[in-house]
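I keep forgetting this: the sequence line spells out the residues, with the fold written below as integer tokens. I include a record here:
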Amino acid sequence: MFEQALNTYWKTVLNTIQDGLMIVDRAGTILSVNRAFEAITGYTKDEMIGSPCSALHCDVCDIARDEKGDYWCVLFRTGSLKMRRCTLARKDGSYVHVLKNASLLRDANDNVIGAVETLTDVTEIIQKEHQIEAFQREIHSQDGFQGILGASALMQKVFSLIVSAKASDAPVIIFGESGTGKELVAEAIHKTGARRKKPFVKVNCAALNEYLLESELFGHVKGAFTGAYRTRKGRFEAARGGDIFLDEIGDLPLSTQVKLLRVLEENVIERVGENKPIQVDVRIVTATNKDLERLVKKGLFREDLFYRINVIPIMVPPLRERVEDIPLLAETFFRRIRMKSGKDIQGISEEAMKKLVDYHWPGNVRELKSAFEYAFVSCQD
């Protein structure tokens, strides 16, 4: 009685399971499929029944006929197939990743009469795996040096100077146009140097006026000026034992230049509103996009300070002088922004890459990255 009831409801059972199911005869002709199979492949039952299973274009199917033509697939030789990952072609031309299991069907006399195959759609899992792999590549692959991208001879020279600089505590100055990555170079100097376990403090000398900048760099005591409600340590004290990065050093006011010169010569600072010298141990790394020698001639930058900070100069080349790095930068920015945006944009066309290489990039690497940010906003597919 139980077996009769089971046979009655067997179709309901098959159509309830989420895995696709397909039954074929010995010749590989499809005899039956369930609803999950229809959903996975996009084909209806009527379209599939009577068709050869090879119509699904499975990328791992092994066709193997014996001399008598008794079997058409290696499954009939091995007897089963377990957890085989493969790709099938759907009706609409797209591909679906599935996990296949298969077994032979035998009659009461143990004769092979066909086979049954189940298909588990693992497309979403595969996509997640690819995404994780991409993230891992992004995390572990530097595509350059300390996160700085570049394979050109000019950039290799920059990397070599960074490595050389780690053996010294002498001041480093980084020259380069806006957007070339001077801050990344400064960070690389800190990360590879002996002070890497100590603070790395950044100050933009162009962002504050003269009085605020001195307070920011050297600190102040309570009551030193209007609004100084408490004593505050400056960036030099915060960087003690580590490195301080003074960006846009060419915009440093002359009065502040004098105080910075004292720091370089005596390793001491004085907080604003106080005459008490405070000993500091920091390495100074500076950067500028200006011609400091020209500023010295104009009297806008102290000559003695220039020679004190210009001990280990590093020139970061503009992008137009290292065009061979543009494809590497472009592909890296494309990959990172695609992962962030989630848009299914496949790649950079050959024509687009040629335009990128031919352009002169006055804003350098920053402009190139911004171009990709804009492209992903405006491009829909």
